[in-house]
Amino acid sequence: MAVSLQVLRTRSPGVLTALCPTRVVLDHVTSKWGVLVLAALADGTRRWGELRREVDGISEKMLASTLRTFEADGLVERRAYPEIPPRVEYSLTPLGDELAEAIAPLLDWVLAHAGEIVDRDASVQTRGSSVSR
Amino acid sequence: MAVSLQVLRTRSPGVLTALCPTRVVLDHVTSKWGVLVLAALADGTRRWGELRREVDGISEKMLASTLRTFEADGLVERRAYPEIPPRVEYSLTPLGDELAEAIAPLLDWVLAHAGEIVDRDASVQTRGSSVSR
DNA sequence: CAGTATCCTCGGAGATACTG
DNA sequence: CAGTATCTCCGAGGATACTG
Q: Could you tell me which Pfam families the record lists for this protein (chains A, B) (predicted)?
């Protein structure tokens, strides 16, 4: 039995309610590209271009904005080298590293079970269309 | 050192790329209300009204749609009792239960560190406004 | 009580072009 | 190479009203 909202709230009443600061942080992490960017940085420094390639499908705008959010959160460190051509490296701070470890189980679960879920959704669709409606 | 995209891809090449099914599942879980609804159900059955109250701020529309997505995914079971007044109960399936356990570390981390992050964001704002720009 | 049905808004997100 | 700057749009999400 995993930890529920109710249980969490016996420890910290009012946590994760609408105006609770935890909501902001949770929103950053679960933003469209948040988990993927964190996962890309999880085992070390990456350059901008590497991130663009690793986080497949992300636009430059969203990569920049996701990184800036995490930088402001103190989860990611940005290091720019004044060279030509420019080089910029991103890495997790100790705090970001902790977070990356906290989402690892989620990633593992997704990899392990995505297949059954997608298959199931497809068959629900199929059944749905063959029934009334 | 947490597990990175690169490491995951040595195990499953191409995983979590743009068209990979895992992306769909990850999107469901990290949808705006996904984590909170799962957390609310994590230690047992809940009625519709209980969920509305526990997941503070969610609209009826989003609660319905989040629950239907998870039901189609096989993560949540919906049980309706033909009574007057109506009663409907939602609970996690075994698969959903596994997922709830996988996101528990994330929730724990958020609760433990939200404070420092929000404080930091606030001070970044302050510093930002006092500097050039 | 447990939902639908509608209408509407807002901003997340994409596409494209440009720059130091 | 590593980003900004704009423009645009779609649809996730919200508000409100209604119903079996």
A: HxlR (PF01638)
